[in-house]
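Lecture 7 notes: from sequence to structure.

We start with a single chain of 66 residues. Read the sequence below before looking at the structure.
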Amino acid sequence: MTRWVQAFVAASALALLLGGCGVRGSLETPPEAKNDPTADAQSGQGKAEGATGKPHKGFILDGLLR
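Now the structure, written as tokens:
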């Protein structure tokens, strides 16, 4: 019985740790592509270059992710 409880706790901890990884949003371009003068000027999301996005909503893990 104890072994099952330990396995469950370990699997739950692993799922929670992996579930909180990453930042939501669009992908960032590599530094080489930012300096490329032949690169397309669009943001890649179908929006105009000067369009503003949604305001950032706070999240409990923001301190760890940023």
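The radius of gyration is 20 Å. Keep this in mind for problem set 3.
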